[in-house]
Specification:
Elements: H1 14-33, E1 37-38, E2 44-46, H2 47-54, H3 59-64, E3 66-68, E4 73-75, H4 80-89, H5 92-95, E5 99-108, E6 120-129, H6 134-150, E7 156-161, H7 168-181, H8 188-196, H9 207-214, H10 225-240, E8 246-247, E9 259-266, E10 275-281, H11 285-288, E11 296-302, H12 303-313, E12 323-329, H13 332-347, E13 352-354, H14 361-370, E14 373-379, H15 381-385, E15 388-393, E16 399-403, H16 408-420
Parallel strand pairs: 1-5, 7-8, 12-13, 12-14
Antiparallel strand pairs: 2-4, 3-4, 5-6, 6-11, 7-9, 9-10, 10-11, 14-15, 15-16
Helix pairs in contact: 1-6, 6-10, 13-16
The chain binds adenosine-5'-triphosphate and magnesium ion (MG).
Length: 421
C-alpha cells in the first residue's frame, strides 16, 4: 500500500513552484514598496486566540479548525490573529506607532476540498496596525490591487462597511427581525445563526438563504455618522488613487473581528471560489486580545487561487528553471577536473550542472536539454590531455574552443564571464 498525501493537502511540484516563487517575489517587492516589513509567526497557536478573535459562532471556529483538543492548540486558519498576538506580546507599538507587516505561509482549514479550496492552503497576508485614517484603507486596498494587476490577474473589487460597536447592535436587531420572518426558508445552520450570529446568514452560500439575504436590510442604512463619514472618505480616497470598485451592501465576511471597511477581490474564473483575496478593518481586535486600543486593517490573498488563475492565463505553459552551463564529462578521467570546474563556476554565481555517470555524449546532451542548459562544456579524455574543451552555445549551436590551461580557479575565472554574457 502506497502512502498518499492527506485529502486536501497538496504537493507543490518543482515546475509549479517556480510560479509560486514568482508570485511570492512580486508580493514581497510590492509590499516593500509600501513600507511593509515581514513578520513570521508560528503555525500553531493556543486555540483561544482564534476563538476570541475570529469569533465562536463562525464557520472557521465552529467547523474548520484543526485543533488538538488535549493540548488546546490549533493549526492557524489565518494569520491576522497570530500577528496581533505577536504584536501585543512584543510590545511592537512602543517601537513604532504604525506597524506595516506582512507574512506569507500555509493556513489550515478543514473544508471540503475542491478546485481552489484545500485544507492546507497559502496566504499572502498584509496588515497595517495603528492607523485609523481612511486613506490608509485605500492605500492597503490599492496595494492588493497593484499586486493582482502586476501578476496580470483580472479581478473586480467590492467594498462595504460593517459599522462599529455603536451602529452594529441596532442593525443586528433589524436583521434578526427580518430573518425571523423568513425562518422557514432558511437552512438549518442559518436558523441557528439567526440567534447566534445573524450577520453570518448574509454570508451563507446556499441559494435559498442567498435569496433571502438579497432583500435583507443592509448595514449601510444603519451606519452611525462616524462610520458613514469614514466609508465615504475611503471611497473618495480610492477614487483619488484611481482604484475602481463597486459597493456590495451585503458583504459581511466570515470572521467576526471586522469593523467598518471590508473588501473582496473577486474573480468569475474559478467557479464557486469567487474570492482571490479579502480583508477589512478590525479596530477592536487588538484590545479584545488584551493589547492597547489600536486600530488595524489587513487583507489576505489565497496563493492557490492566484496560481490557478495564472496557469489558466498561461494556457498550461509552465516556467522553466535554466542551467547556465552543463559540463559533459566524457570518461572517468574527466570526472574529477569537471567536478572541480563545476564547483568553481558555482562559487562565481553560475548555475552549473554535470553528470558523473560517464555516459555517451549523446546521452549527456539530452540531459543538458532537460535542464535547459544555455551552454554545454564538453570535456573528453583526449581534449583533457591537450588542456582544451569545447564550449557549445545551445541557442546558436556555435562552438568554440575553451582552454583548460591553468588551475581550476583560473579556468572558472575565465569561463564565468563567457557564460554570463
Ligand atoms: P471563501 O469564501 O472562499 O471560503 P474566506 O472568506 O473563507 O473565503 P478568507 O478567510 O477571507 O477567505 O481568506 C482570504 C483568502 O484566502 C480567500 O479569498 C481565498 O483566496 C483564500 N482561501 C481561504 N480559504 C481557502 C481554502 N480553504 N483554500 C484555498 N484558499 C483559501
Ligand atoms: Mg471560507
Amino acid at each position: 500500500m502506497k502512502i498518499q498525501a492527506i485529502n486536501g493537502f497538496k504537493d507543490i511540484l518543482p515546475d509549479s513552484a517556480l510560479l509560486w516563487q514568482q508570485i511570492e517575489q512580486r508580493a514581497r517587492d510590492i509590499f516593500q514598496r509600501f513600507g511593509m516589513r515581514e513578520i513570521r509567526v508560528p503555525i500553531m497557536e493556543k486555540t483561544d486566540l482564534f476563538v476570541r478573535s475570529i469569533g465562536e459562532a463562525t464557520d472557521v471556529v465552529e467547523k474548520e479548525m484543526y485543533t488538538f483538543t488535549e493540548k488546546s492548540i490549533t493549526m492557524r486558519p489565518e494569520a491576522t490573529a497570530s500577528i496581533m498576538r505577536a504584536f501585543i506580546e512584543n510590545g511592537m507599538h512602543v517601537q513604532q506607532p504604525v506597524q506595516r507587516l506582512f507574512t506569507i505561509g500555509p493556513m489550515f482549514r478543514h473544508e471540503r476540498p475542491q478546485k481552489g479550496r484545500q485544507r492546507q492552503f497559502h496566504q499572502l497576508d498584509a496588515e497595517i496596525i495603528g492607523a485609523q485614517e481612511p486613506q490608509v484603507d485605500a492605500e492597503l486596498i490599492a496595494m492588493g490591487q497593484m499586486l493582482l494587476d502586476e501578476l496580470g490577474i483580472n479581478t473586480s473589487l467590492e467594498i462595504n462597511s460593517l459599522g462599529c460597536p455603536a451602529c452594529r447592535p441596532p442593525f443586528r436587531t433589524k436583521l434578526v427581525n427580518y430573518l425571523e420572518l423568513h425562518q422557514d426558508a432558511l437552512c438549518d445552520d442559518c436558523k441557528r445563526r439567526t440567534t447566534t450570529n445573524p450577520l453570518r446568514v448574509l454570508d451563507c452560500k446556499k441559494s435559498t438563504c442567498k435569496a433571502i439575504a438579497k432583500d435583507a436590510p443592509s448595514i449601510l442604512d444603519s451606519l452611525c455618522e462616524n462610520c458613514s463619514d469614514h466609508f465615504s472618505l475611503v471611497r473618495q480616497a480610492l477614487q483619488d488613487l484611481g482604484i475602481s470598485f463597486t459597493i456590495n451592501r451585503f458583504m459581511v465576511r466570515g470572521l467576526d473581528y471586522y469593523t467598518q471597511t471590508t473588501f473582496e477581490f473577486l474573480t468569475s474564473d474559478l467557479g464557486a471560489q469567487a474570492a482571490v483575496g479579502a480583508g477589512g478593518r478590525y479596530d477592536g481586535l487588538i484590545e479584545q486580545l488584551g493589547g492597547p486600543a489600536l486600530p488595524g486593517i489587513g487583507f489576505a490573498m489565497g496563493i492557490e487561487r492566484i496560481v490557478l488563475l495564472m496557469e489558466q492565463k498561461n494556457n498550461g505553459t509552465s516556467l522553466t528553471q535554466n542551467t547556465d552551463c552543463f559540463i559533459a564529462a566524457l570518461g572517468q578521467e574527466a570526472n574529477k577536473p569537471c567536478s572541480q570546474l563545476t564547483h568553481q563556476l558555482r562559487l562565481r554565481g553560475i548555475n552549473a550542472a554535470m553528470d558523473y555517470s560517464g555516459r555517451s555524449l549523446k546521452a549527456q546532451m539530452k540531459q543538458a536539454n532537460r535542464v535547459h542548459a544555455r551552454f554545454v562544456l564538453i570535456v573528453g579524455e583526449n581534449e583533457l590531455k591537450q588542456e582544451e574543451a569545447v564550449l557549445r552555445d545551445m541557442k546558436t549551436q556555435k562552438q568554440q574552443v575553451f582552454s583548460l590551461a591553468g588551475s581550476v580557479s583560473e579556468q572558472g575565472e575565465r569561463l564565468a564571464p563567457v557564460l554570463r554574457a
